Amino acid sequence: MAIIISHQIRDMEFGSAIPEEAKEVLQRTARVALATPIASRGLPPGTRLLKVYATSARGPRRVVYLLAVEAADLFLLFYRDKSDAVGANVSPKNPAFSLQLKKHLALLSEDLKTNRVDVIDVKDRQGSPTV
To answer: Residue 72's pLDDT is what?
Structure first.
């Protein structure tokens, strides 16, 4: 399993580089069993939207992944503080979330086409990929 991060989304969520503290949070939360599925329209075929609540040195975070079901890879869409307009209510009923979701899915698609992505491998405690 890997976490794939679009450069444009990385820049929006973290700046030009992902802090080590955030990488640790992402690796810790990259477990489908810990995530809550989010019903949403307009997702690419064979994918599901997942949200995870996480703690970090900078406070509570809301992480949203797009799961490619067959490959079991996670595409990071959001890494937000819970007080952020999107992080406060990660739901299609939240207009801020719905609007940003459309934008982030477009950015992800654009960066995947040009291979402008960062990849973080996720391993369990025994060194095997987690699913």
So the answer is: 85
**Side chain identity, residue 12:** M
CA distance 92 to 83: 17
Distance of alpha carbon 38 from alpha carbon 125, whole angstroms: 28
Q: How far is CA 99 from CA 15, 61, 106, 124, in A?
A: 21, 19, 11, 34
Q: What is the mean pLDDT of each run of 10 residues along the chain (131 residues)?
A: 95 94 93 90 92 90 94 94 92 94 96 96 53 34
Query: Does residue 87 lie in a domain region?
Result: yes
Predicted pLDDT of residue 127: 41
Q: Which domain holds residue 37?
A: 2-121
pTM of the model: 0.89
> How many other β-carbons are positioned within 10 Å of the β-carbon of residue 20?
8
* Gap between the Cα atoms of 68 and 118, Å rounded: 16
Asked whether residue 127 is assigned to any structural domain, the reply reads no
Closest CA to 12 of 83, 72, 90, 100: 100
Q: How far is CA 27 from CA 10, 69, 78, in A?
A: 15, 18, 14
